[in-house]
Amino acid sequence: MKLKTPHLETETSTSMENPAYGEAFQDGPEQQQMMETKKEPDPVEIKQEQEELCGNQDKEQPNVFEFCGNSFMQHNHMIPQADEKPFSCLTCGRGFNKQYNLTVHMRTHTGEKPYPCELCDKSFRRSNDLARHIRTHTGETPYSCQFCGKSFNDNSHLTIHLRTHTGEKPYSCEVCGKSLTDSSHLIKHMRTHTPEKPFPCLTCGKGFTAQSDLTVHMRTHTGEKPFTCLVCGKGFIQKTTLSYHMRTHTGEKPFPCDLCDKSFIQSSDLARHLRTHTGEKPYSCDLCDKSFRQSSDLARHIRTHTGEKPFSCQTCGKAYRDRSNLVRHMRTHTGEKPYSCRVCGKSYSGSSQLAYHITTHTGEKPFSCLTCGKAFNKQSTLTVHMRTHTGEKPYSCDMCEKSFRENNDLTCHMRTHTGEKPYSYKMQSCHELCDEFFTVKCTLT
């Protein structure tokens, strides 16, 4: 079938002038003859051929075009309209320039996911989404970064990653001007300016600005930890948390401090550390005049006002204000001590305990008082020491007017009201048995 409409002949002639098409048409004498013959087409023939292209839409027989050899169910293949969106969604009115895009879009309304994964129970709306998902099973990462060699299972992830090298942030917030590397990050950021949290948790009611955040949150209810360390078998809720954990095995610390010789596993750890140099405490308590370097420290502090202890031990019922304290407490039941000293081999249940222990080998005292210069090997010791300068006594007795610098001082003081003496000391001396009891353990020495 030869297409003889003037419009199509004009487009074909333009295509012939393109060098990319030249070689293909030089070898075809029929095409050359057709180009040389430029008689005016008969209107009757034009109408007849249009009816052949468009007239019988019910028959699903593709039109094969001589120029490119491709077959299409619609005749408008040769007349692309870039701005036109003739395919509209009857549900929401959104327009599309291709029937396929409309078909895929309709599945967001119907919930149809015709592409199931044979390796798990997940299904997808598009075949390329399924192909990308399959790589999570196979581990295939065919898209590699030319700068650092990091590989990805999707080309779009590589594109976003490359911006960490180039510094490009093409998506800007119209409210505050902040720029971001990814359009999804911009959408999520925009919700920080509005109270919108369109993804609620059906279990606890907490709302989230992104579906991915809700997915991660749901794992705190289900206990699912789909990302497992191949070295020690530890499971994690998020893939990024696993990548950070892997650095504890490799020793990699890619984020160095420019002001000292310390390096860190995460960029957030470096940002937090830099505040120890600058003294910045950007997180302020609305209930008192305290400020903190980390938002998590502020959240933990707020609970000292509210008395909230949301983290409970399932074994003994003891509750804690902070999840990390609960994790450390659970090890008193399991006996787990995952943090070992490389110098002497001694193990500890908490990383902070190990860090403190290591200073006994190195003699390092990294926490210095800015007032008197005295140095300490623990941040908590420095915090207590600073109260000798400020006069702060944050631990108050509910039964009298006394206040104390440390919580354990208040605990000991409370026993003077209750009469409790939990520390006993039995000594066999001169055939006499001492059964004295004390309120403070140090009294025994």
Automatic annotation (TrEMBL):
Keywords: DNA-binding, Metal-binding, Nucleus, Repeat, Transcription, Transcription regulation, Zinc, Zinc-finger
Record-linked PROSITE patterns: ZINC_FINGER_C2H2_1, ZINC_FINGER_C2H2_2
GO cellular component terms, semicolon-separated: nucleus
Region Disordered, residue ranges: 1-41
Stretches assigned to the C2H2-type domain: 87-114, 115-142, 143-170, 171-198, 199-226, 227-254, 255-282, 283-310, 311-338, 339-366, 367-394, 395-422
Localization terms from the record: Nucleus
Family: Belongs to the krueppel C2H2-type zinc-finger protein family.
InterPro entries cross-referenced by the UniProt entry: Znf-C2H2_ZIC1-5/GLI1-3-like, Znf_C2H2-type, Znf_C2H2_sf, Znf_C2H2_type
Name the UniProt record assigns to this protein: C2H2-type domain-containing protein
Record carries keyword Electron transport: no
